[in-house]
Design goal:
single chain, about 210 residues, 5 helices, about 5% strand, mainly alpha
């Protein structure tokens, strides 16, 4: 009789291989599934189905807040008085042209009244002293007497060669208006000059960090 060999078992009991250790961020739940330490379930969502909010890394920098630009300056109102800045030459031309036109108006409407011409000379002197720019302040008291003489040409009596004599006579008789207008322009210029010097000293003291004297 043949005897059958008994073959030894080729396959023995399986040995469980050691599993690699889990990272510290992941833990095992009760059912064996991975559970994240932060942020909720492993699927990336919260218990209610909403996605988990990402956490900011400790070394990340915050985004700077947007800088608000200052609002633009409001436009000048229509009723505001004009405030031009004339150069020395511009102020002289302005005063001379205006006085010549006023002299023509006085000759046409007031029959060459020198008193009306002298009264109109005062506001022109004020405007000339106010509108000249700060760098040319000292030119205002110089140009107003010249403009006064230029405006007397349409008002002065006489024709031809006698026109010069009429101009000299008008200057002599209306010297009070001439001096008064020049004095007003000079006072305005002095006040503006003093304010300008004080403003510059205050700005220099503020820039240097010491109180203004």
């Amino acid at each position: 009789m043949e005897q059958y060999r008994t073959r030894p078992a080729q396959y023995g009991p399986r040995r469980d291989r050691p599993r690699p250790p889990l990272p510290p961020q992941v833990k095992r739940g009760a059912g064996g599934g991975p559970v994240r330490a932060r942020g909720g379930p492993a699927g990336g969502g919260s218990a209610g189905g909403a996605p988990a909010r990402a956490t900011r890394p400790p070394g990340a920098q915050r985004r700077p807040a947007p800088v608000r630009r200052p609002a633009p300056a409001p436009a000048a109102s229509a009723g505001r008085l004009p405030n031009p800045r004339l150069t020395g030459l511009g102020s002289g031309l302005f005063c001379a042209v205006v006085m010549f036109l006023l002299g023509a108006v006085c000759a046409a409407l007031f029959r060459g009244s020198l008193t009306a011409y002298g009264v109109l000379f005062l506001p022109v002197c004020v405007l000339t002293a106010l509108w000249v720019r700060p760098g040319d302040l000292m030119t205002a008291p110089v140009v107003v007497p010249i403009a006064f003489a230029a405006g007397l040409l349409p008002v002065a009596e006489g024709d031809g060669g006698n026109k010069l004599m009429g101009l000299l006579t008008a200057l002599a008789t209306q010297a009070g208006w001439l001096y008064g207008g020049t004095l007003v322009a000079g006072l305005i210029v002095i006040v503006r000059r003093v304010r300008l010097v004080r403003r510059r000293r205050t700005a220099a003291a503020a820039a240097g960090g010491r109180p203004a004297m």
